[in-house]
C-alpha cells in the first residue's frame, strides 16, 4: 500500500468518524434506549443503525446512490419518509415525557423487543437522505481512478468496524449504572429533550428543499 493510498483511507475513516460520532438523531436514540431499556436493547438499536449505514455504503459502492441523488423525486420520497418517521419518534418521546412512571427497563429486552429496536435503528438510517449523500462523498473521497482493488473492501470493512465501535460504544456507555440512575432522576427532561431533537430533525427534513 502506497503512502498516498493509505492517506486517502485515513481521510475516509476520519470523515466517517466525524459524521457518525457527532450528536444526531441516531446517537440520541441509542442514548435514550440505553438509559431507559438497558444495554441489550440499545445494542440492538445500534446494530440496526450500522446495518442501515452499510446498506447505503453498498449502494454507494455500486453507484446506485449516485443515481438516486440525481433524481429529485427519489430523494424527496426518502426525505418525507424520514421526516415523518422522526416526527413519530418525537411524539413517542413526548408521550413518554408526560407519563408519571418510567417504563420498566426489561420491557424492551425480550426477543420481540430487541427485534423492534433493531428495526427502529434500521429504519432511522434508511430514511435519512443525508446518509445517501454522505456515503457518496466518502466513496468519492476514497475511490480514486488509481485506487487499488482492495480500497473498496478496506473502506467497507473499516467503516463497519468504526460504526460498531462508535454506536455500540454509545450503547455500553449510556447503559452503565451511573447513566441509568441519572436517567431515572431526570427521565422526563431527557425524554423531552429527545422529543425536541427528533422533532427538529424531522421538521428540517420535511422543510428542506435540497
Would you write up a description of this structure?
The chain is mainly alpha-helical. It has one domain. It is built from ten helices and no strands. It has helices at residues 3-21, 25-37, 39-62, 64-70, 72-98, 111-126, 129-142, 151-173, 177-185, 187-207. Mean pLDDT is 80; it is low at 103-107.
Mean pLDDT: 80
Principal-axes geometry comes out as globular
Report the helical percentage: over 70%
| Fraction of residues in β-strands | under 5%
SSE pattern, N- to C-terminal: HHHHHHHHHH
Distance between the termini: 38 Å
Rg measurement, Å: 18 Å
Number of domains: 1
Highlighted features:
210 residues; single chain; mainly alpha; globular; 0% strand
What layout of secondary structure does this protein have?
Blueprint lengths: L2 H19 L3 H13 L1 H24 L1 H7 L1 H27 L12 H16 L2 H14 L8 H23 L3 H9 L1 H21 L3
Short description:
By secondary structure, the chain is mainly alpha-helical. It contains ten helices and no strands.
Amino acid at each position: 500500500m502506497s503512502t498516498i493510498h493509505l492517506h486517502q483511507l485515513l481521510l475516509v475513516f476520519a470523515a466517517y468518524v466525524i459524521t457518525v460520532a457527532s450528536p444526531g438523531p441516531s446517537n440520541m436514540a441509542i442514548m435514550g434506549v440505553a438509559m431507559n431499556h438497558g444495554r441489550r436493547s440499545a445494542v440492538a438499536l445500534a446494530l440496526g443503525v450500522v446495518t442501515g449505514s452499510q446498506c447505503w455504503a453498498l449502494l454507494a459502492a455500486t453507484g446506485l446512490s449516485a443515481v438516486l441523488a440525481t433524481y429529485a423525486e427519489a430523494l424527496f420520497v426518502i426525505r418525507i419518509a424520514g421526516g415523518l418517521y422522526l416526527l413519530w419518534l418525537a411524539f413517542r418521546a413526548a408521550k413518554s415525557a408526560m407519563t408519571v412512571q418510567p417504563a420498566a427497563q426489561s420491557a424492551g429486552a425480550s426477543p420481540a423487543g430487541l427485534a423492534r429496536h433493531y428495526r427502529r435503528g434500521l429504519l432511522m438510517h434508511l430514511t435519512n437522505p443525508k446518509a445517501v449523500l454522505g456515503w457518496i462523498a466518502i466513496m468519492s473521497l476514497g475511490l480514486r481512478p488509481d485506487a487499488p482493488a482492495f480500497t473498496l473492501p478496506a473502506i467497507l470493512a473499516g467503516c463497519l468496524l468504526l460504526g460498531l465501535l462508535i454506536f455500540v460504544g454509545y450503547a455500553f456507555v449510556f447503559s452503565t449504572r451511573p447513566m441509568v440512575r441519572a436517567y431515572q432522576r431526570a427521565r422526563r427532561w431527557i425524554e423531552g429533550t429527545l422529543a425536541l431533537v427528533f422533532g427538529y430533525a424531522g421538521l428540517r427534513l420535511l422543510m428542506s428543499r435540497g
